[in-house]
Specification:
The complex is a heterodimer. Chain A is an all-alpha fold. Chain A is built from twelve helices and two strands; from the N terminus they run αααααββααααααα. In chain B, α6 runs antiparallel to α12. Classes of the chains: A mainly alpha, B mainly alpha.
Chain lengths: 338, 335
């Protein structure tokens, strides 16, 4: 019992330290650099939180370390670009219908992401599950590496390497927040991310499908004995995971124009977040997304944009040395031996 | 020395390759007059040697070193900078490349000791990304993206001597690492890769063997990277990119994990096919990558033994057709 409380308090202490450090950085950054650092970090943080939550979900439930999560993001940007062009040509940009076009676009891109997740699970992970569960983590990692190569190059073959972007979904005046003009698109990206995170939490906490996902995450054999359909749960998990990434890509199309390797940067960052938070903890991934976004924005502002990748990665290695299972993770030993 | 001679005598395939390499230029002088083809084969030999060193970690202790290209690139940069600033011959600086990368591998092994499988892979990856960032951001030393001029290994501009050197390097890498995997250490690597707890219970020290494995694998990666740098003559931070690691991973997995020879062999046809697709389907850029991606997925799902397993099966069937009972006995179960 004493070790349990010991561990709990240590986790609590390290969490507290990180949150305090982040708060301090935010305060200093706001003081020195102005509120726009905070606003920028919130937008990228929202995107990162979505992509990383998907990554954490797939790892927590399916034990799949997804290297193609960035390509799901890329598919989101591409689907959004193509459907936005089609919808705004056929429905126009005026009036109520025109105002609905961005939401329809983002919704459609999310559905495409979900469909891709189902397809990948049916065609790749399900056959592998049937063949062998040996070395599952490494094998699925290699499969997603292959998937990432395929998706990037198919995009390049069919749509070319040029930037396919838009100026913005909503053509309106910027909103003034903390004396900083904030584009309506940025504001909406944060709102959409918040809604998606709330929906994900509701699903995991309250709906039967979410409960079976958590059950499979805890103990797959036990969940199967309780009558949970493992294959369906896996499929649903990957669908949600890739839909989250595609949603992030679609909502941020105005910042990230679609091109074949647009997903590489989000992928690196999402992995950093997930490792920082501890593999498989979704709440941790969401908090970690915002923490990393703040770190990165401040690093690029105060040290120089070219160092904005080096500093987070170095920091992560240091944090991992002190807490090998991440800041929010618990002991996850048995998971590797599946 | 006796052990090494013994080892060589048992490796008929090595003798076959040596014979092939020595005879081919004599039989087909027209081919070997083509500098393009030679360059292609040298590139394939370099990739093959890197894939062998990669397989030494991925196929044995079962940890994917996802920062592999950066370690090899570190070897290249170390060797190049030593050769430039100390003014010594590139032949000597190759050793510095090996040592630099081996030291880095040693520290990576040490650093990832506390992590299992996937965590270790990702930490190595982050280290590589940080390294690449450092190389990019120190242009006063590395000249960053503008590229570092590296002194050539040989003064001749012909590719033929490099061809012999590259094949020798591939054979050396293969033989040295094969020797290690056939020793007591190789057994320990496999045990650690399959089940760390059981290996520990049997008295295998995970720390010692993991560090040893990383040091050796990265040392060879550094040597090969240094050779490649002194052959090409220019270094950019790009060679440390994750996509180069992925390239090596594809070769290692298609060749067959945990065999060392599979990756070495498969590198050559893959390089030829790549070149063929690149020249004949130039209106479809990246089509060879789509094919490799699909192949990688299919092999991992359906046929994890890769080319080595295929060869073993075909070989056994051939033996059986000839009525030799040895074929069945030699067939090893897929690992």
């Amino acid at each position: 019992m004493s070790t349990l409380t010991g561990r709990l308090s240590r986790t609590a202490v390290s969490r507290g330290l990180v949150l305090a450090a982040t708060a301090a950085i935010v305060a200093v950054a706001t003081e020195r650099g102005g509120a726009f650092i905070v606003i920028n970090s919130l937008v990228t943080g929202a995107m990162l939180a979505l992509v990383a939550a998907g990554l954490a979900l797939a790892f927590g439930v399916m034990n799949v370390p997804n290297f193609a999560q960035g390509e799901f993001f890329m598919v989101g940007t591409l689907a959004a670009f193509l459907s936005h062009r089609f919808l705004s040509e056929s429905l126009g940009t005026e009036g109520f219908v025109g105002a609905m076009v961005p939401l329809l676009t983002i919704g459609f891109a999310t559905l495409v992401g979900a469909a891709l997740g189902v397809l990948v699970d049916r065609s790749m992970f399900a056959p592998l599950r049937r063949r062998s569960r040996e070395e599952w983590v490494m094998n699925t990692f290699v499969i997603t590496v292959g998937l990432s190569i395929v998706l990037i190059n198919v995009h390049q073959l069919v749509w070319g390497t040029d930037y396919k972007g838009i100026f913005g979904y909503w053509v309106t005046q910027p909103v003034e927040i903390l004396n900083v003009p904030v584009g309506f698109d940025r504001l909406m990206a944060v709102v959409i991310a918040a809604v998606a995170i709330a929906a994900l939490m509701f699903l995991l906490r309250c709906l039967p499908a979410g409960r079976s996902m958590r059950a499979v995450a805890q103990d797959e054999a036990g969940a199967m004995l309780m009558g949970i359909d493992i294959n369906r749960t896996h499929m649903l998990t990957l669908a949600i995971s890739s839909a989250l990434a595609a949603l992030a890509g679609a909502a941020l199309l105005f910042m990230f124009p679609s091109f074949p390797s647009v997903g590489v940067q989000p992928l690196y960052l999402a992995w950093t977040v997930v490792i920082l938070a501890g593999l498989g903890t979704i709440g941790g991934a969401i908090v970690g997304g915002f923490v990393l976004a703040f770190l990165q924005t401040s690093a690029s502002y105060f040290v120089g944009a070219e160092w904005q990748n080096v500093i987070p990665f170095t920091l992560i290695i240091v944090i991992l040395l002190l807490r090998p299972h991440g800041l929010f993770g618990r002991e996850v030993r048995g998971i590797w031996e599946q | 020395m006796g052990a090494i001679a013994d080892h060589l005598a048992r490796r008929r395939e090595v003798l076959a390759v040596l014979a092939l390499v020595l005879v081919l230029p004599l039989v087909l002088p027209a081919w070997f007059a083509s500098e393009d083809l030679l360059r292609l084969i040298i590139g394939a030999a370099i990739i093959g040697a890197l894939a062998v060193a990669f397989d030494f970690t991925a196929g044995y202790i079962n940890i994917i070193n996802f920062g592999f290209a950066a370690f090899s690139g570190t070897g290249g940069y170390t060797s190049a900078l030593v050769a430039i600033h100390l003014g010594i011959s590139p032949w000597l600086s190759l050793l510095f490349g090996l040592l630099g990368a081996a030291m880095l591998g040693f520290f990576t092994g040490l650093l990832t000791l506390r992590f299992r499988g996937m965590y270790a892979a990702v930490v190595a990856w982050f280290l590589a990304l940080a390294l690449m960032g450092v190389v990019q951001n120190l242009p006063e030393i590395t000249r960053g993206a503008r590229g570092l001029q590296v002194p050539h290994l040989l003064s001749s501009s012909s590719n033929l001597p490099y061809f012999y050197l590259a094949v020798a390097l591939l054979l050396f890498t293969y033989l040295a690492l094969k020797l290690v995997t056939e020793s007591h250490a190789g057994l320990a690597f496999r045990a650690l890769g399959q089940n760390m707890e059981a290996a520990r219970a049997s008295g295998v020290n995970p720390a010692r063997y993991r560090i040893m494995n990383f040091t050796l694998s990265c040392g060879f990666a550094g040597l090969i990277g240094a050779f490649s740098a002194h052959y090409i003559g220019i270094l950019t931070p790009n060679i440390m990119d994750t996509w180069h690691t992925v390239e090596i991973l594809v070769v290692a997995y298609l060749g067959g994990r945990g065999t060392l020879w599979g990756p070495a062999v498969v590198a050559f046809p893959l390089a030829l096919v790549t070149e063929f697709l690149r020249t004949n389907f130039s209106e479809y850029p990246g089509v060879h990558l789509v094919i490799y991606g699909v192949l990688l997925i299919v092999v991992t799902i359906r046929y994890p033994g890769g080319f080595a397993e295929l060869w073993r099966t075909v070989h056994a069937r051939y033996r059986r057709l000839r009525g030799s009972p040895a074929g069945e006995a030699e067939r090893q179960p897929a690992t």
